[in-house]
Write a structure and sequence with these properties.
The chain is an all-alpha fold and 486 residues long. Helices cover 60% and strands 2% of the residues. The chain has 23 helices and two strands. It has a two-stranded antiparallel sheet with strand order 1-2. Strand 1 and strand 2 form a beta hairpin. The termini are far apart.
């Protein structure tokens, strides 16, 4: 019997000392599951009567014995415990100040030189998957041999664990070892450098798989194909969409492949402003599936030099296609007209189209009042725009009613409005009275053989639809530019 010992139950009211250095240096990085066994061991060192086996500790903490052993092995590597015997196991608890001092043996240096680093690695896998000495040696080699930063290594390990189906540390470390060597060869050492290359590699893998699917090739990408995909993204700065769109041109090849696609992208890359792709979209809107010719590219460049935006040129092509005009010459003619109006931006062109579309509908309504169903022409729209600046809507509609039955209603309305304006007429009643008087006088003169009113006696001829050009204004609601569908 010992000279002195605590009485039964004294441990319940005793205190287990924990150094502040432990709380500051170790507590922030201790993996979950390792702290409880250590603190309980500190209490047992003062009160061995509470338990003297690993089973006792596991039972008290409601843990598995293996997890308790893993925890004590972790603290050994942290320099706070030392195993003195194996059967039965026995440990010495070491002061924190001893663990934080420089270790004396190479073996200890391997474990303790990067205490926070190794603790962070262990935290990635948790207490149930303890890292072994070979994993720590690899982790140190990534720092000291390959030159990676600690942050870069931790990112690699955590990222690979998320991606890996086998989450065990041994498998993850083998894969990271190969990956780290490749990244170091490519000049990536810092966290940002590694993160950027990993993102490119993942994007390259996804792109390569998407290309294979688009080419109807059912297998995984090869290493050469992955390198090409990574080159397109990181060196040539191609977008995923542009690469997949270029796959459509591989149909010209009997056996579509990454190599053929690479040639297509290389050709496009020689066109830094993207004129080829932009003009191809314009031609598609015109209804052509052919690629641009050198002459067309030259003319397209001249339009862009004039100030036309890509979307404006495409808008013109959309309009022409609706009018069943598909030639490149038609496009050049229409852009010439728009240049006269200085409609270079898509906003200006769309506003012009909307405005003229509204005017066109108003002209159509006037022509219907005049008893004709023909389509409005550019000249008709220009006339209405002039009238709206000079006459009231009621007077314009009155002129349309008076023009009913005439062969050229818009010209007839023009004559009426000018004669009313010259007479100072501004209301509908006076206009109708003047028109009735003029009509009666004209009939009377025609009946008596007298000379007719010079204002109404002008040579008329029969016009056909060929005398009126297309209006070149499309309905916005049919072409994705707004408006009400009718």
């Amino acid at each position: 019997m010992a000279l002195f010992e605590f009485s039964q139950g004294a441990a319940m009211f005793d205190v287990t000392p924990i150094e502040n250095m432990f709380l500051l240096e170790y507590l922030p990085s201790v993996p979950e599951g390792f702290l409880r066994p250590y603190l309980y061991a500190r209490m047992l060192a003062l009160h061995p009567e509470l338990g003297d086996t690993l089973e006792d500790i596991a039972r008290a903490l409601r843990m598995d014995v293996a997890d308790v052993e893993n925890a004590f092995l972790f603290w050994e590597r942290q320099g706070l415990m030392q195993k003195m015997a194996s059967n039965p196991p026995a440990y010495h608890l070491l002061p924190v100040r001893t663990a934080t001092s420089a270790p004396n043996t190479p073996s200890n240096r391997e474990y303790y030189e990067y205490r926070d680093y190794t603790a962070a690695l262990q935290a990635i896998f948790g207490a149930e998957d303890l890292l072994h000495p070979q994993e720590y040696r690899l982790a140190n080699d990534w720092l000291n041999v390959l030159g990676l930063s600690q942050e870069a290594v931790l990112f690699l390990v955590e990222n690979e664990k998320k991606r890996s189906k086998a989450k065990r540390a041994a498998t993850v470390f083998r894969r990271v070892d190969k990956l780290a060597a490749g990244l170091a060869d490519r000049g990536a050492h810092t966290f940002e450098e590694v993160r950027k290359l990993i993102a490119i590699d993942e994007d390259g893998m996804n792109l390569a798989a998407a290309v294979l699917k688009r080419l109807s090739i059912h297998r995984s990408p090869t290493e050469d194909e992955l390198r090409l995909a990574q080159k397109w993204l990181s060196q040539w700065h191609c977008t995923r969409e542009s690469v997949l769109e270029a796959c459509e041109e591989t149909v010209r090849s009997r056996q579509p492949s990454f190599a053929y696609l690479d040639k297509i992208l290389s050709t496009r890359r020689q066109d830094p402003e993207g004129a080829f792709a932009s003009l191809k979209r314009v031609l598609a809107e015109l209804g052509s599936s052919a690629g641009p010719t050198p002459d067309q590219l030259k003319r397209y460049a001249s339009w862009r030099a004039m100030g036309f935006a890509e979307d404006t040129i495409q808008l013109a092509a959309v309009q022409l296609n609706r009018r069943k005009r598909h030639s490149f010459e038609d496009l050049e003619w229409l852009l010439g007209k728009w240049a006269e109006q200085k409609l270079y931006s898509p906003e200006a062109a769309e506003e012009y189209v909307r405005k003229n579309s509204a005017l066109r509908q108003q002209v159509r309504a006037l022509l219907e009042r005049a008893g004709t169903e023909r389509n409005p022409s550019l000249a008709d729209i220009a006339l209405l725009e002039q009238w709206q600046g000079r006459y009231t809507q009621e007077l314009i509609e009155c002129a349309a009613d008076c023009a009913r039955g005439t062969q050229l209603p818009m010209k007839y309305m023009q004559k009426l409005l000018e004669s009313w304006s010259a007479a100072g007429i501004q209301d509908v009643a006076s206009a109708l009275a003047q028109h009735k008087a003029a009509t009666n006088a004209h009939h009377a003169a025609a009946t008596s053989g007298a000379a007719s009113n010079p204002a109404l006696n002008y040579q008329q001829r029969t016009y056909t639809s060929d005398d009126f050009g297309d209006d070149f204004f499309f309905d916005p609601e049919k072409q994705r530019y707004g408006g009400d569908a009718t």
